Amino acid sequence: MNATGDVEKFNCWSSTYEDSWSQYLYFDRIHKGVIGLVNVESAPGDIVDIGCGTGRLLRKIRERWPYARLIGVDPAEGMVKKARQMMPDSTFIVSPAESIPLPDASVDLVFSTISFHHWSDQLQGIREIRRVLRSGGQFFLSDIAAPKFLFRFVHHGQIRNQYEVRKMFEQVGLEVRTQRRLLLGHILVTSGIRR
Q: How far apart are the C-alpha atoms of 148 and 159, rounded to whole Å?
């Protein structure tokens, strides 16, 4: 996330985050759409969610791949604490996307849903994700795709268009497989693979 204020906001929100109407009307639909785009030949062994919040996406991933090792990464300690309570059999780490404390080439799939605009250094975050992906590993990034002028009035952070996201993937060595829009075009999903 791009500022201490962001992290503190999410720390405060962590106790009621799961109860928010936005979980059911917004995030659940995005999670379902992103998971539906994953096409892998064999079940992934290690899956990471960057900006995992309370682990909601990881709980859905567990339904599809029940034997995968699930890892959540989030800079907000309150969110991670709540995620650990809800998923004690998974691993949760307090860390920003820009410095993921995992070994090189150690995971098969990485997801990030609606946290990218909070990252302080988006290119470095994508570089870190490429570093932790195994050869053939895939990254699924979904974030807000609203026009920048509108986004400034309702939110903060840095949104990117599809061309900017594609360029960042390519800059770090991720081959873009697809770019799709969800929720009437308001969410951009970009998937890339480490070759």
A: 7
Q: Is 5 exposed, middle or buried (0-12, 13-18, 19+ CB in 10 A)?
A: exposed
pLDDT tens, residue by residue, 36-70: 999 988 899 999 999 999 999 999 999 999 999 99
Specify the CATH number of the domain 4-34+43-194: 3.40.50.150
Record the tokens describing residue 143, joined without a space.
Answer: 């974030």
| pLDDT digit string, tens, across residues 100-150 | 999 999 999 999 999 999 999 999 999 999 999 999 999 999 999 876 565
- The torsion defined by the Cα of 69, 70, 75 and 78, in degrees rounded to 10, comes to -120
What are the tokens at 10?
């999410």
Q: In the chain, what are the domain boundaries?
A: 4-34+43-194
Chain position carrying tokens 């990117």: 160
Element of type H or E holding 162: helix 162-172
The whole-number pLDDT of residue 151 equals 54
Is residue 71 within 8 A of residue 49, CB to CB? The reply is: yes
Tokens of 105: 């080439």
